[in-house]
């Protein structure tokens, strides 16, 4: 049956192909418009459990069979949710061992999604059952849906070495990452980047993708040579690993963005001879592998990037009228005729932010039109740095030391600004200013 909320009326629909008991349903909000029914615990003659699903086309009203494999006993799950991207998240949690002894599975999962993000690496070590649950995409989707995920801003801090070694002197700077937890207001340093990265380079990128941070590329401050190194930090294990280096040609001043699917895309830049490049590559974090993508129609050097809703956007030079996008599915480049500045920032829900004429007003673009959303605080007018994600925009003013002196946060509710909030920086943190944003 289907219930029409506006008409306050019920309508009978065609029956399913077979009976369903103890089942759940998910609805895909995408071009297919399918209502899926997943049944649980249907015992077969072999004493095994079967996952059975049917999809219902809400346009034509036919039931469509959905083939699902037969899984071993006590590994069937009817825990399914649909994300905003139209993907179905489902996990086959092993029920031989309860998440929390004496509690139903759903209650145990509700308890785990409420733990602070900093304790997740410890929870993974409790038992294989908790490790399996915490590493599943469903677990983190539930955390975000229930409002228990933490919003982190990652700052790269360049500091002076505290002691001399045979190789590095105290005047040599080194890097460390510092996380600002917007949910709690707490500051905390992340584990040190591997020793090979101790000499702080120029023009490197720090991007977030899924539950990872990726530090990539750069220009060596002493030899002025391009760095092709890749370092990956996992928030679940609280450890760094050395990723596969970038394939040639080595480059710097390139565009780099992390996707929601544990991938990092790089495009354009300059090679070691200052030749502009138009090649594009994608790094798969899970597979630790690089894939070459179709080249851009023209070279882009000293460019910036955005990634939103499956589209990768490159803006070349200080101002470029042609925006170029790549779709994740077919990697086709398309030109968009609109003038943007490199200081523009892509936020959540496809919003693009920029400063208005005179630097007094903050503008946002949703759809085809620009509109004023808020007045910038006086302390950050001029040439502020902006960082945006989901419903939050951070605006900072950077002094000559390259570390922000003033930071404000603007929260958006359904496209409407709710007001600025000032963030205090601890005096013990100082150095260069690079950022990345993570939800965990």
Automatic annotation (TrEMBL):
Residues 101-141 form the F-box domain. One of its GO terms (biological process) is regulation of phenylpropanoid metabolic process. It comes from the Eukaryota. It holds the Pfam family F-box. InterPro entries: F-box-like_dom_sf (IPR036047), F-box_dom (IPR001810), Kelch-typ_b-propeller (IPR015915), Kelch_1 (IPR006652), KMD1-4 (IPR044595). PANTHER family: OS02G0208700 PROTEIN. This is F-box domain-containing protein.
